[in-house]
From TrEMBL:
Residues 124-182 form the Peptidase M48 domain. Keywords: Hydrolase, Membrane, Metal-binding, Metalloprotease, Protease, Transmembrane, Transmembrane helix, Zinc. GO terms for molecular function: metallopeptidase activity. The chain crosses the membrane at residues 36-64, 85-106. Its cofactor is Zn(2+). This is M48 family metalloprotease. Belongs to the peptidase M48 family. Pfam families: Peptidase_M48 (PF01435). InterPro entries: Peptidase_M48. Binds 1 zinc ion per subunit. Gene3D superfamilies: Metalloproteases ('zincins'), catalytic domain. It is an enzyme of class 3 (hydrolase). Its EC number is 3.4.24.-.
Length: 290
């Protein structure tokens, strides 16, 4: 298998890791969209490449006459041969990635069923989370109601409603699946989770008009409940608390109406182009349609 086959996936992986570790100075709403695009296109390109490697490897294990009898088989042979270690690793990555993604979706489904139509949970741990879908809404614990003041509870509800209004669960789910299918994207998933939390934080700060109050509320909940959130869904103090509090104690990010859309559009065009070039290199259309 020739090295140009791997170029689009390697280039997008490098770009995604740079953006995850060196975030652009954008409002979190645009950073979230940009990270979502790069996560999805990188995962798509990487998985298509890994699938090709696995298919060529499996084709090489079959009788040559049987494989060469079809157009698809001849296309796969044209991409070969594949090193046995690389081929085995590609097959293992596909199986493990699919299993982890299925488990994630099953876990989310189970949590929605368990917490559906539940406004207040009888739990001493202070937490709040946004539960999307039918029967969803904002779920809070008894411990949180005892911990916070009325003004702080307003912060909590505005934060979680921001998650629901902007459908942040779709962002975090897409990022999580991308990372499970292609583990190098774990850093992008973490950056995306931080970005959607920052988005909800900034929505809340703008609504209540007190950035310090939002910061203190998040910090107080985190200090009272240092253990991880009891569910996977976006929670008030579920992740990146120090970074979020530090950001809230500073100035509000710029809401420039030009820079964010321009960068998002440019990134979308560039990454989609690289993903398309990968499919052309892999002869994906021929393999699927013939």
């Amino acid at each position: 298998m020739s090295w140009p086959t791997f170029v689009p996936a390697l280039a997008l992986t490098a770009l995604s890791l740079v953006l995850a570790r060196r975030p652009l100075p954008l409002h979190p709403s645009w950073s979230s969209r940009l990270l979502l695009v790069i996560a999805v296109t990188t995962a798509f390109t990487a998985i298509s490449t890994i699938t090709l490697v696995a298919a060529v490897f499996v084709a090489g294990l079959l009788p040559a006459d049987l494989v060469a009898a079809s157009v698809k088989g001849r296309l796969l042979i044209g991409h070969g041969p594949v090193n046995p270690v690389m081929g085995s690793a590609a097959c293992a990555m596909l199986v493990v990635g699919a299993s982890r993604s299925a488990w994630l979706l099953w876990r989310q489904h189970g949590e929605r069923l368990r917490l559906a139509d539940t406004g207040v949970v009888d739990d001493d741990r202070p937490f709040a989370l946004a539960l999307p879908g039918p029967g969803g809404g904002v779920v809070v614990s008894q411990g949180l109601l005892r911990l916070l003041s009325r003004e702080q509870m307003q912060v909590v509800f505005r934060h979680e409603h921001s998650h629901l209004r902007h459908r942040h669960h779709l962002y975090t789910t897409a990022g999580a699946i991308a990372a499970r299918l292609f583990p190098p994207l774990a850093a992008v998933e973490a950056a995306l989770r931080l970005s959607v939390e920052r988005w909800a934080d900034e929505d809340t700060a703008a609504a209540v008009g007190d950035r310090a109050l939002v910061a203190h509320t998040i910090a107080e909940v985190a200090l009272a409940n240092p253990a991880p959130s009891p569910t996977w869904h976006p929670a008030l103090a579920g992740s990146h608390v120090l970074l979020r509090v530090h950001a809230l104690l500073g100035d509000a990010p710029s809401t420039n109406p030009i820079v964010g859309p321009a960068l998002l559009s440019g990134t979308g065009v560039a990454t989609s182009g690289m993903a398309s070039s990968a499919l052309q290199l892999h002869h994906a259309a021929s393999l699927l349609l013939i």
